[in-house]
Specification:
Blueprint: H1 89-102, H2 107-128, H3 133-170
């Protein structure tokens, strides 16, 4: 005969052992709640703060700002906004020379010099990333326009001088 308690039966390996049911609580016993599950609160780590502030006058690695009216400290930037890029000096000179050539203070030399310096400064600005590109372009444009106007005016003067010399030689003196 085979049953669940007989270990030699072929079904014994396939069926789990039978556990006795829990006894029912007595009707007159007081209610006891089940035990809460084991709960571990998360571990809190205390933030770490520096032990003490540095002493007055001690170096903390931050840049030191000079007193108002004092000369600036080497290597420090002003505290108000980012520093503007350095303007190319040749761009400024190009614009000034072109304008001086355009208003006939240095008629041809200023215009040609301003245009050439403008081209050189545009190349330097592209290579170094300095500021002043608009001034360099203004120097190039005003320089070449001033050169063209100067050459036209000089050409008209030469034309009228040659015309006048030819007319005076046709009408010789008596």
């Amino acid at each position: 005969m085979t049953d669940a308690t007989n270990p030699q039966s072929p079904d014994a390996a396939a069926t789990p052992p039978v556990t006795p049911p829990n006894p029912a609580p007595a009707a007159d016993a007081p209610y006891t709640p089940p035990a809460p599950p084991a709960y571990q609160p998360p571990a809190y780590q205390q933030p770490s703060y520096p032990s003490a502030p540095p002493a007055y006058g001690a170096s903390t690695g931050a840049p030191v700002q000079p007193a108002p009216g004092a000369p600036p400290v080497y290597g420090s930037a002003p505290s108000y906004g980012a520093a503007a890029p350095k303007t190319n000096v040749l761009a400024v000179i190009s614009m000034i020379a072109s304008l001086l050539g355009f208003v006939w203070i240095l008629p041809l030399i200023g215009s040609v010099g301003g245009a050439i310096m403008g081209h050189i400064s545009l190349n330097q600005i592209k290579r170094t990333g300095e500021g002043g590109r608009a001034m360099a372009l203004a120097g190039v444009i005003v320089g070449w326009v001033g050169t063209a106007i100067s050459l036209l005016i000089i050409g008209f003067f030469v034309f009228f001088i040659i015309l006048g010399a030819a007319a005076s030689s046709r009408y010789g003196s008596y």
